[in-house]
Amino acid sequence: MAQVISIANFKGGVGKTTTAINLAAGLKAKGKKTLLIDVDPQANLTQSLGIHDQIEASVYHVLHKEAFGEETKLEDVLVSASGLDLIPSSLELAGAELELASVYGREQILDQLISSLKTYDFVFIDCPPSMGMLTINALVSSDFVMIPLQAEFLPLKGVRSFLKHLELIRKLNKRIELLGFLLTRYDHRKKMNRQVREELETEFNSDKVFKTVIRTNIALANAQEKGIDIFSYDKNTNGAIDYASLTEEFLSKFNH
Amino acid sequence: MAQVISIANFKGGVGKTTTAINLAAGLKAKGKKTLLIDVDPQANLTQSLGIHDQIEASVYHVLHKEAFGEETKLEDVLVSASGLDLIPSSLELAGAELELASVYGREQILDQLISSLKTYDFVFIDCPPSMGMLTINALVSSDFVMIPLQAEFLPLKGVRSFLKHLELIRKLNKRIELLGFLLTRYDHRKKMNRQVREELETEFNSDKVFKTVIRTNIALANAQEKGIDIFSYDKNTNGAIDYASLTEEFLSKFNH
Ligand SMILES: Nc1ncnc2c1ncn2[C@@H]1O[C@H](COP(=O)(O)OP(=O)(O)OP(=O)(O)O)[C@@H](O)[C@H]1O
Ligand SMILES: Nc1ncnc2c1ncn2[C@@H]1O[C@H](COP(=O)(O)OP(=O)(O)OP(=O)(O)O)[C@@H](O)[C@H]1O
Ligand SMILES: [Mg+2]
Ligand SMILES: [Mg+2]
């Protein structure tokens, strides 16, 4: 049975999509079978893996069929993109927020679909920057949640209210646990970055804050433009070094 | 009659809130009367002006009353925060997306409320990173939209789909116009930044891209932590210099 991990934070632009791609690629290099699911209507994860045309069959179509009782499964829309297994998103997903709002069991639609996935070690769900039906569906289907954030004032504020929402989600999914906070665009020379890191470690207990931090590195954006992960782009960049070290630390949390 | 400007982009973390505060502060220094409205449930604008306690009366309460036919106006919840006039947000706003979804005329609730504001030169609306009911209400009530973005691959992709949505909004608000794209965290030494800037200027016509770019400057985050604008924090930072130049360029678009 796969371990399902949501990569979520309703604060925008903190590196959710960048982390999903590069952690999945790092795990693949370690021989683990990983699946990426893009539930962001922006479809940034799908685009960052080189898929730019309008997708005919995406996670939207599967969610919609499941919500209205038609026979369907996630594997129906599975694609291989830059060597990674992906359930792609599409712009129709923006309509799903309102469409799903009145469906019976609206928070558990994705959970029904994910429980039938047997062949993966890890499933990562890339969430949009909001706490709507799509993020709720992701959290309800997850064993863990990973929260990327920039070590700055506003993102730190957002995390506390995100965790309050997570407590409410526990009513629908008792098993969800915080896997950890991942600091992105981190510069140890900046006092604010160091202060926020210390604050997180004191407030939430240091084993909930990944020791690996991701430094600012434009190569991460360059790789996304080319539609590939950072290791395929250039193994010698800070981005590749940091995400390789994150992969090690991630696996150590699962005793692999 | 005030000029109403939405600061919007459904891509997250691009500097919407940072721009709203510092442009409003820049205009105030030039003697203009400006109002800020925070329609992001994250309430980052409200927090960045030093308001951290749970707000009793926020934009949520006014939108809710207006939607259900009770007498109300935005001035009822107006506060002065760090010298700026603000209609604050609160976490209840997260529920507004679903609550407003079934209300008659759900896209025009904010527009009804804004048209009675007479005393301001400029009203800025800080939007959340999504294209839900709150952003739609902001765009329907606006004369202009300003789109901050980082000059990178994913944010550029997001802009094209944002503009498609804007075309749909025009059905509800014929007057809305693109005031311009504002490049944030810009570094002219990075090839990708220069390329994206050129692409924008070619694709959308160069008068739609602000000549002023905002450089990466941690002082902008420091100022938010202290709950003040960048000019009050330190006039000699790159952030203050860039936002002062943006203020000049902004005013030149309105022949002031
Ligand atoms: N460590 C980093 N260094 C430099 N750039 C980065 C880094 N991480 C992410 N980026 C860039 O910053 C932007 C935002 O990152 P990303 O899209 O992964 O964030 P997100 O949290 O998924 O955003 P959203 O909230 O919109 O979904 C992208 O253009 C990405 O290429
Ligand atoms: N030019 C800049 N240089 C350095 N840091 C910046 C700059 N602009 C914004 N920031 C910081 O980046 C983070 C994101 O900025 P901000 O919150 O303004 O973006 P946003 O688009 O409003 O985000 P959201 O989509 O979550 O509403 C904040 O921590 C802010 O302090
Ligand atoms: Mg993303
Ligand atoms: Mg914001």
TrEMBL record, chains A, B:
PANTHER family: COBYRINIC ACID AC-DIAMIDE SYNTHASE, P-LOOP CONTAINING NUCLEOSIDE TRIPHOSPHATE HYDROLASE. SUPFAM superfamilies: P-loop containing nucleoside triphosphate hydrolases. It comes from the Bacteria. Gene3D superfamilies: P-loop containing nucleotide triphosphate hydrolases (3.40.50.300). InterPro entries: AAA_dom, DNA_Partitioning_ATPase, P-loop_NTPase. This is AAA family ATPase. Residues 3-177 form the AAA domain. The lineage of its organism: Bacteria, Pseudomonadati, Bacteroidota, Flavobacteriia, Flavobacteriales.
